[in-house]
């Protein structure tokens, strides 16, 4: 590679889970500290960080087409760094397959980016997929500006080794960040504008402090930060849903009534083959306890259809479970064999056509469940955290406590918590009316023509 002038502008593109979004924001802060500015909308950046996801084949292949698209008409390209889980999983392979890439950096080594950029400027390519003892969390600068809803990674990695999943290999063993560091970072986020914090982890409810206390202790302490209005956490594993954390849903008002608790499948043989270490029944019992603690809780989950060997009858157990739970929203995927995972070499891989058909049936059931949940919210008055402007003049978009998107018009600003009456439900969002505000007069009813 030829030496290039030091980059003046950057763009970070994050794919995959919210932990990548969080890492992307912290990398951006680091690049800013190096004197590199964010490229403005539409402008080509001198340095592009592709913060990738390896969870399914499609997501992983995307990085190569993205790299191709970065090539300019004159044949040159910006400096390209591949970060994230594809970087960790495919390190050297990316270097061989994509000569335009000058840096490959795994999720635990982001703080080493400045050194890698200096090498790239000199024309040297580098790969760093170490999992060093010093953590990126300590070494990366804190974010100085965030929106009303901010992410905070509290736990990383996974020791569960579900047989289909790459995360234990790409993110390493479970680690919990220290309690005091988290409180300090949360306070900075609040000072930077956050009114809601979502605690993140691949298994966020496996977080423990130095004395072995669970996530509820962190939630409790965060709830004492006055200017912080809302706390959420994601993603949780059913086996780490402790009595203490369930009780927090009853006792701590700022903890929002929403729980993302993936189950993956409704059949016990399939769950066992997935190495999920819970049964359909033990999962449902956890949900019963959570509902007893917080009756209005909105439930969410993840599903995989077409795991190797899944029969149609076993798939129907998943549909039955969906029926029983009444989810507020969910993610569902076709099984994707991932290199190096045990399931990838299991016999009886399910045909793509069968997976397609199962996914359609599952998604129809999940969509119906989501619509029913949203419809049941109509008539409720709730607080909405305003996150951005809507499509129309004077319209705002925000989130209900149950993580539904709500749009409404009227006097508000980004970051406000406003009282809204939910008046109409669609599958993906609800219409609200500012409580106390009178409805907009419908002039057409009175024979007045309204300019379009
Ligand atoms: N730690 C979380 C989820 C992490 S990955 C948990 O245990 O639930 C996010 C979701 O991607 C998973 O819940 C699963 O539904 C899906 N997923 C993971 N590996 C997959 C694969 N090989 N094929 C299809 N979907 C997969
Ligand atoms: Fe993957 Fe299972 Fe760990 Fe979730 S719990 S990250 S699905 S291995
Ligand atoms: Fe994807 Fe890695 Fe997250 S594989 S889902 S970016 S942990």
Structure explained in plain terms:
- The chain is α/β, with parallel strands linked by helices.
- The chain folds into three domains: 9-128, Rossmann fold (3-Layer(aba) Sandwich); 145-376, tm_1862 like domain (pyruvate-formate lyase- activating enzyme), CATH 3.80.30.20; 378-446, OB fold (Dihydrolipoamide Acetyltransferase, E2P).
- Helices cover 33% and strands 21% of the residues.
- The chain contains 13 helices and 19 strands.
- The chain has helices at 18-33, 57-69, 84-97, 113-121, 136-139, 167-170, 179-191, 215-223, 243-251, 268-273, 280-293, 312-325, 352-377, and strands at residues 9-14, 37-38, 47-52, 79-83, 101-105, 126-128, 149-153, 155-156, 175-176, 196-200, 230-234, 258-260, 298-305, 329-334, 381-389, 395-399, 405-409, 417-425, 429-434.
- The strands form five sheets. The chain has a six-stranded parallel beta sheet, sandwiched between helices. Strands 15-16-17-19-18 form a five-stranded mixed beta barrel. Strands 7-10-11 form a three-stranded parallel beta sheet.
- β1, α1 and β2 (37-38) form a beta-alpha-beta unit.
- α8 (215-223) packs parallel to α9 (243-251).
- The chain is globular and about 60 Å long.
- It starts with 8 loop residues before the first strand and ends in an 18-residue tail after the last strand.
- The model is unreliable at 439-452 (pLDDT under 50).
- FE3-S4 cluster is lined by residues 16-17, 19-20, 53-55, 84-85, 166-167, 170-171, 202.
- The site of S-adenosyl-L-homocysteine has 17 residues, from β13.
């Amino acid at each position: 590679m030829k030496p290039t002038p030091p980059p003046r502008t950057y763009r970070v593109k994050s794919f995959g889970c919210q932990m990548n979004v969080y890492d992307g924001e912290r990398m951006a802060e680091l690049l800013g500290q190096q004197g590199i500015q964010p490229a403005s909308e539409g402008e080509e950046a001198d340095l592009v960080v592709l913060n990738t996801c390896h969870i399914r084949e499609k997501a992983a292949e995307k990085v190569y087409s993205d790299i191709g698209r970065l090539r300019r008409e004159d044949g040159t390209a910006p400096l390209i760094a591949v970060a994230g889980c594809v970087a960790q999983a495919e390190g050297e392979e990316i270097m061989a397959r994509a000569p335009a890439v000058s840096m490959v950096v795994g999720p635990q080594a982001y703080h080493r980016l400045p050194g890698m950029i200096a090498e790239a400027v000199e024309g040297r390519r580098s790969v760093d997929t170490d999992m060093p003892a010093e953590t990126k969390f300590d070494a990366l600068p804190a974010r100085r500006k965030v929106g009303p809803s901010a992410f905070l990674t509290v736990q990383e990695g996974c020791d569960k080794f579900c047989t289909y999943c790459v995360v234990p290999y790409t993110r390493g063993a479970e680690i919990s960040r220290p309690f005091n560091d988290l409180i300090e970072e949360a306070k900075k986020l609040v000072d930077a504008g956050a009114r809601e914090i979502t605690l993140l982890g691949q298994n966020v409810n496996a977080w423990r402090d130095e004395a072995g206390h669970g996530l509820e202790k962190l939630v409790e302490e965060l709830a004492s930060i006055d200017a912080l209005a809302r706390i959420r956490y994601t993603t949780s594993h059913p086996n780490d849903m402790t009595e203490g954390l369930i009780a927090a849903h009853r006792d701590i008002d700022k903890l929002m009534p929403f729980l993302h608790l993936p189950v993956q499948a409704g059949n016990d043989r399939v769950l066992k083959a997935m190495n999920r270490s819970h049964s359909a029944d033990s999962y449902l019992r956890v949900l019963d306890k959570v509902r007893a603690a917080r009756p209005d809780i909105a439930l969410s989950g993840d599903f995989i259809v077409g795991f190797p060997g899944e029969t149609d009858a076993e798939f129907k157990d998943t549909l039955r479970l969906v029926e029983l739970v009444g989810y507020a929203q969910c993610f569902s995927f076709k099984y994707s064999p991932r290199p190096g995972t045990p399931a990838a070499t299991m016999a009886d891989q399910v045909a793509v056509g069968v997976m397609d058909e199962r996914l359609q049936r599952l998604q129809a059931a999940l969509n119906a469940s989501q619509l029913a949940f949203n419809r049941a919210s109509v008539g409720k008055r709730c607080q909405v955290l305003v996150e951005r402007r809507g499509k129309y003049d004077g319209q705002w978009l925000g989130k209900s406590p149950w993580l539904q998107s709500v749009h409404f018009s009227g006097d508000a600003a980004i970051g406000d918590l406003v009282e809204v009456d939910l008046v109409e439900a669609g599958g993906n969002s609800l219409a609200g009316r500012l409580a106390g505000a009178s409805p907009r007069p419908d002039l057409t009813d009175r024979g007045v023509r309204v300019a379009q």
